[in-house]
Amino acid sequence: MSTSSNPRLKATFERLNGRAALIPYITTGDPSVSATVPLMHALVKAGADVIELGVPFSDPMADGPVIQRAAERAVARGVSLQKVLDLVAEFRQSDDQTPVVLMGYANPIEAMGQATFATAAGAAGVDGVLTVDYPPEECADYAELLNQQSIDPIFLLAPTSTEERMQRVADIARGYVYYVSLKGVTGSAALDVESVAQQIQRIRQHVTIPVGVGFGIRDAHSAQQVAQVADAVVIGSKLIETLEQSYAEHGDDQKAIEAAAAWLQTISQALSV
């Protein structure tokens, strides 16, 4: 599969040799700022192939209640875009293999400045950036800034995406495409794998890079089903819910990290069968 301007993402998909990549999503700064990097390392050890790191934002419109709560907690702890980049740089001190993709919204990037952000993200060791509310039609210049730093611009496609939108994404996207398997917000509804398979066939008529699927994958069974038709399985809400519940019960970062890693390992094992 083709083009990635980022060597870590490219190498990861090539190494998997057809097995679907496991991509957990966590919100930077949750359950705490100091727990973020240890949590990233624990998830890699539990089988994560790529880590999607959510950039906290006060109005995460595409996210359901679980991730919204995590974003609110992180914003309350003062987690800025710069802090996210600092934590990626810290993670890179002991892991220079696992790709890290930032997922978030345009406002923090606009506030920092697109060019400043791209340079800083490259220096920190970011591999891809998915900005939910930057449509491909309007961000060729931004995508080029990322490409210059060997960072892959990643885009969403949805069940409602037209053929024209798919082609626009195909023209500009690198790394992988993130297919939102449900209409609605993260963590909602049940997954219709047959419908997902049909949509991925449509997407692949336009897109030659890997296709990841997220939204609605909540257990090993649904992950396994999606892995049969997609190149990557993205899991966020259920993982954050696991962290949240453990922290509520024990009030302890380490226990929350262990609970999240143990849960992710069940997904990793299901994908390895």
Characterize the structure shown.
With 273 residues, the chain is an alpha/beta fold. The chain has a single domain, classed as TIM Barrel, CATH 3.20.20.70. The two termini are 23 Å apart. Helix content is 51%, strand content 14%. It contains 12 helices and 9 strands. Strand 7 (177-180), helix 9 (193-204) and strand 8 form a beta-alpha-beta unit. It has helices at 7-16, 33-45, 65-76, 81-92, 106-112, 114-124, 140-148, 163-172, 193-204, 220-227, 237-250, 253-272; strands spanning 21-27, 51-54, 100-104, 128-131, 152-154, 156-157, 177-180, 211-214, 232-235.
Give the secondary structure arrangement, pairings included:
Blueprint: H1 7-16, E1 21-27, H2 33-45, E2 51-54, H3 65-76, H4 81-92, E3 100-104, H5 106-112, H6 114-124, E4 128-131, H7 140-148, E5 152-154, E6 156-157, H8 163-172, E7 177-180, H9 193-204, E8 211-214, H10 220-227, E9 232-235, H11 237-250, H12 253-272
Parallel strand pairs: 1-2, 1-9, 2-3, 3-4, 4-5, 6-7, 7-8, 8-9
User: What is the count of DSSP helices, taking H or I runs of 4+ residues?
Assistant: 12
| CATH topology group | TIM Barrel
**Average predicted local confidence, pLDDT:** 93
The CATH architecture term is: Alpha-Beta Barrel
The 3D shape can be described as globular
List low-confidence stretches: none
CATH superfamily: Aldolase class I
Q: Work out the radius of gyration.
A: 17 Å
Classify the beta-strand content into a percent band: 5-15%
Helix content: 40-55%
